[in-house]
Amino acid sequence: MASSAPLSSAPGTRPRVILASQSPRRRELLALIGIAHEVRPADVDESVHPDEAPVPHCERLARDKAHTLAVQHPDAVVIGSDTIVVIDGDILGKPGDRAEAIAMITRLSGRTHTVFTAVAVAHGGVTLSGVESVSVTFRPLDAEQIAAYVDTGEPMDKAGAYGIQGFGATNVERIDGDYFAVMGLPLGRMVGLLRDLGFSYAFGPLTVADSGAR
Ligand SMILES: Cc1cn([C@H]2C[C@H](O)[C@@H](COP(=O)(O)OP(=O)(O)OP(=O)(O)O)O2)c(=O)[nH]c1=O
To answer: Where is this site: Important for substrate specificity (predicted)?
Structure first.
């Protein structure tokens, strides 16, 4: 018998956990809090719908990622997430090329923007989700510093063209909110949603909760 168990299993058994993400940061963060998981990136269209506001956009994508994999793997609890950077009401996703990365960092320089990360958890036909909002202020950066940062290659697979967990840390003057949401996965919010979905987390592997204790 497999070592993982679906929600219908006895309390205390470990569910199969799937992280619906290609992001190495999300894998690292889930491992950091001891949640063993498989990785299965979800193939969802990340384009912004007409008139879609930033928060509904990122929440929809996180839910789509989790739901898509949950339908394919009904025995598993699935975690999906999406991160966007918003400044002046515009969504900055991942830069397409060096010029776009330079334009994004130039726009963020010396100003405050908002990072929104949505997380969704899905199992048994139920998808629960939430969005963390984090305010991040960048130090003023000159053109030379911006070009040098972009040439590290770090910005290219990251929303807003920076990584707070890497060289991009030096761009940051202030952060107000959950650091882990900026990095791509709001761990506290995620654990709360997993508990609401019927799982226990006690600083180690997830287990199926006793329904009376939920
Ligand atoms: C702002 C910021 C974003 N990021 C990353 C987190 C996400 O991986 C990425 C945002 O793009 P996403 O589309 O949220 O995620 P992804 O395409 O990397 O992975 P998947 O959709 O398969 O889950 O930007 C950082 O690593 N550090 C940061 O400081």
So the answer is: 25, 83, 165
